[in-house]
User: Fold this.
Amino acid sequence: MSRTLTVGAAQMGAIQRADTRADVVERLIALLRHGAEAGCDLVVFPELALTTFFPRWYVQDRSEFDHFFETELPGPETRPLFDEASRLGVGFHLGYAELTPDGRHFNTAILVERDGSIAGLYRKVHLPGHHEHEPWREFQHLERYYFEPGDGFGVYGAFGGVLGMAICNDRRWPETYRMLGLQGCELALIGYNTPVHYPPDPSQDALQGFHNRLVLQSGAYQNGMWVVGVAKAGDEEGCVMLGESAVIAPSGEIRAVCTTDGDELAVAACDLDMCADYKETLFDFGYYRRPEVYGLITSQRGAEVPDDVAAVLGRAARRAEETEEMEEGTDA
Ligand code: CDT
Assistant:
């Protein structure tokens, strides 16, 4: 049986603050139909695909932003998307802000099968940005203020393969892909909203596209899996976000890529059996990995220079200082 899935990376252009859910759902449905015409089994939408990227604003009372969150999916405004997807027999992945019945806020994505059933739900683990309002920035990145982190990475038996999800900043961390890879993931779906300007270090602005490709391609290759990275791009209320949505093969090669900053579909045929070419050779985890020497990865959070190395560096610095002082004394 062929395990080739036709997958559409459904990039979205900007969503402005004043846009209604109905406006956005109409755009999602247009992309879905475009995907159906292109023979897609699965259409992948970005992170927070139903609203503008609201963590760029600070409000003192967070509940003022609860209208950006979904309390149910499908709800009355999103139901047409679910109905159209099952009518077309196309599955989808959708990122959105989730408000749970017990009042918890998450940055979430769901995976919906071709028959409309929900195959998986994932809550973003790595929340970037800051907790506090930082008025010096041109725009905020307050994900750590508006969301709680999710508690892990799962995989789902769907679309005839092993599928996983991650969200935006998760894609920069090798642990994300490895957690999925260790569960046999063959296709990872990752939506993103990436501002081109990075206020803490603007020297990274010109590298945003390169860094995006770097992490998606290496994650795919090092774990022998397909990776679909999908942007919400363009200029949202003066904040310009990266496009370059792409479908990447287990070889690390880009198989399809968006070329605009607007609503656009990039389609690729993803043969899930190709994963075995990597998972069963160079990246045969069971044969080659050495978890017994990777302990620091889970026992420690930040980087710590070992005491003996710090002591060597301290001695060298003191010697350099003494030499400089002696030289200054000789010159005088
Ligand atoms: N949405 C999201 O996770 N964006 C981040 C921006 C990093 S800077 C705060 C990203 O990693 O693309």
Remarks:
- The mean pLDDT is 97.
